[in-house]
Automatic annotation (TrEMBL):
Origin organism lineage: Eukaryota, Viridiplantae, Streptophyta, Embryophyta, Tracheophyta
Gene designation: LOC107924535
Segments annotated as TPR repeats: 411-444
InterPro entries for this protein: TPR-like_helical_dom_sf, TPR_rpt
Record's protein name: Protein KINESIN LIGHT CHAIN-RELATED 1
Extent of Polar residues compositional bias: 610-631
UniProt keyword Transferase, yes or no: no
Superkingdom of this protein's organism: Eukaryota
Stretches the record annotates as Disordered: 590-631
Keywords noted in UniProt: TPR repeat
Length: 631
């Protein structure tokens, strides 16, 4: 929901604000409704506001003062009647074209503030239609200039700012959009703090602003930040809507998807389950909304590696989609099911499923390409590499024709295909596909997170190939992009810094390597915990970097932490523990035979002006351990 309530326009300059409930009905009150309230009124004292229906305010005239016949009306009253007629014409307009014609007639009779209100209503209508964002921007700008002349905070100014943010978002001017929305957010906070308006009247506009902020930040790739705004928007809905309303269920699902997009499946799960609970209760087990809820739960369970639960949700979703005859969605759901079977190691079942699906697809369709990608994955897992490559080549042939039509979908598909070639040790082909994916994603600002993930994988593969200098720019770029998208403490960012440390160590730059490993360790300790396998291996790498510098006291300190961490894993990590203890003894032997005066005895500080220290603000498609574990 991105539009501020058109009905709120009529709420200015009156003695008391009326309650606004429920939120969504107020946001979506049609501007064409016969009961729509007027955004305009004469400033003459003869015109008063009176309520016609609960929550809506209408202008009404004091009929006792209008007793003369039309042809006997004094000049001033004739002007009032002319304004009234123009206002009624504007209010009765059913399309944006009719509103624009009425507005043109009004320009000679109404003052700037009154025209500002009309401009706001037209801007909201045009933004809602979405067909002419430039014209919507023109009216939004007029409204803001007219309503914000005195600099006093008001609901109407907040609505105009929200409209400016919304239209700039539609025009992909994300920085401008963010600037206006942040202003609206601050202004609404002042209104609430100073009690200039009631909380009930602030909430609808605040909800629109928070939701739009979430949309803009997501489009800018700042998904971690966007989650905060989307969660605030949900909290407003929870305070305003009935606890079992369909709209609240949709909001829970949207937030579940947002968390899943940054790979935070644990946080996503409860919101997905709430959405399912509400929609089952309100709409029944066979509703399309329930099918969509089960689809996102399948994604979440897959991310949590609970593949049996994921497949169960998928099968239940498929039944509903079949009942409703939604063939396109059903086809995608069947492909998802095949991928879940692959994740469970049921490769023959997956291949049989995909053979059935491929018959339902058009020759050059994206769905057909997806089927062959999944088929290639299943065959690759069976080590039938020649057959797998044939399937992947067919998929690439289809996708090559779709790059301009569906760049994001094609980029994702190239990335998926590259993983299969990587598994087959065909690194050159994998890197080539990833570079094609990166070229497409760089043109899509909203896919910044995917751009960072692909750049990280290119760097990782170049590192595996021994092309270390070439890998570093890709890894550095990925770290900056993903910090912006997911936050500086996301585990994916930690993996990239670990790989950078490995690269610097390969280049015989142990001091730089130690700094990168230290950053990686700090991130992983927070995001994964110090006893996670990858956190332990990062600590091991930090010890190796200090050892390469000849700084044995520090190398021993971090290697001791590795030993302690593996001991905490018990019998399942006996081999790792023995190896860590062996390395520790070797370090102690080296330390006894070396003077340490010329080497650091304290951990190196984090770099102050390099990649690791820049203050930056899903999905990270690499599960591999970092190039890192250089045992």
């Amino acid at each position: 929901m991105k539009k501020a309530s058109l009905s709120l326009i009529s709420k200015f300059n009156r003695q008391r604000f009326r309650g606004i409930s429920p939120l969504l009905s107020i946001y979506y009150i049609s501007v064409n409704s016969p009961s729509s309230s007027s955004p305009l009124h004469s400033m003459d004292r003869r015109i008063q506001f009176c309520a016609k229906t609960p929550g809506l305010v209408y202008p009404c005239r004091n009929l006792g003062t209008l007793v003369e016949k039309p042809n006997q009306l004094p000049s001033r009253q004739r002007k009032l009647k002319e304004k009234s007629d123009l206002e009624e014409a504007f209010e009765s307009a059913k399309t944006s074209e009719e509103m624009l014609r009425a507005f043109k007639d009004m320009e000679s009779c109404f003052d700037e503030r009154e025209l500002g209100l009309a401009s706001l209503k037209i801007g909201l209508k045009l933004d809602q239609e979405g067909e002419d964002p430039e014209k919507a921007l023109s009216f939004a700008d007029k409204a803001l200039k007219a309503l914000d002349q005195d600099g006093k905070p008001s609901i109407l100014v907040a609505m105009a700012l929200q409209l400016m943010g919304s239209v700039n978002y539609s025009l992909k001017r994300f920085n401008d959009s963010l600037r206006y929305l942040n202003r609206a957010n601050k202004l609404l906070g002042r209104l609430e703090e100073d009690r200039v308006a009631s909380v009930e009247d602030i909430r609808p506009v605040m909800h629109a602003v928070q939701l739009e902020l979430g949309n803009v930040k997501t489009a800018m790739g700042r998904r971690e930040e966007a989650l905060g705004n989307l969660k605030k928007a949900l909290e407003i809905k929870e305070m305003t809507l009935e606890k079992d309303s369909k709209e609240l269920g949709l909001a829970y699902r949207d937030l579940a998807e947002a968390y899943a997009s940054v790979l935070n499946f644990k946080e996503a799960l409860p919101f997905g389950l709430k959405a399912l609970e509400i929609h089952r209760k309100e709409l029944g087990n066979n509703s399309v909304e329930v099918a969509h809820d089960r689809r996102i739960l399948g994604v979440i369970y897959t991310g949590m590696e609970e593949h049996e639960k994921a497949l169960e949700q998928n099968e239940l979703s498929q039944k509903i989609l079949k009942n409703w005859g939604l063939s396109s969605e059903l086809l995608r759901s069947e492909i998802d099911a095949a991928n879940m079977q692959i994740a469970l190691g049921k490769y023959d079942e997956a291949i049989n499923t995909l053979k059935g699906i491929v018959q339902q697809t058009d020759k050059d369709s994206e769905n057909r390409a997806l089927v062959f990608i999944s088929m290639g994955k299943a065959l690759c897992n069976q080590e039938r590499f020649a057959d797998s490559k044939r399937c992947l080549e067919i998929a690439c042939g289809i996708l090559d024709k779709k790059e301009t039509v569906s760049p994001i979908e094609v980029a994702e598909a190239y990335s998926e295909i590259s993983m299969q070639y990587e598994t087959m040790n065909e690194f050159e082909i994998a890197i080539s596909l990833l570079k094609r994916s990166l070229a497409l994603l760089e043109q899509q600002p909203q896919e910044q997170h995917s751009e960072g993930s692909v750049s990280a994988r290119i760097g990782w593969l170049l590192l595996l190939k021994g092309e270390v200098p070439q890998s570093i720019p890709y890894l550095e770029s990925a770290a900056e992009i993903l910090k912006e998208s997911f936050g500086s403490k996301h585990f994916g960012v930690g993996y990239i810094y670990n790989n950078l440390g490995a690269a610097y160590l390969e280049l015989d730059r142990p001091q730089s390597a130690a700094q990168m490993f230290a950053v990686a360790k700090d991130i992983m300790d927070v995001s994964l915990g110090p006893h996670h396998v990858d956190s332990i291996e990062t600590c091991q790498n930090l010890s190796k970097a200090y050892s390469a510098m000849g700084s044995y006291p520090l190398a021993i300190e971090f290697q001791q932490r590795v030993v302690d961490a593996w001991e905490g894993h018990g019998a399942s990590a006996e081999d790792e523990l023995r190896e860590a203890q062996h390395i520790l003894e070797e370090l102690k032997t080296k330390a006894r035979g070396t003077s340490t005066n010329q080497f650091p005895t304290k951990a190196l500080p984090l770099p102050q002006h390099s990649l690791a220290s820049r203050n930056s603000h899903p999905n990270v498609p690499f599960n591999q351990n970092s190039a890192s574990s250089m045992r």
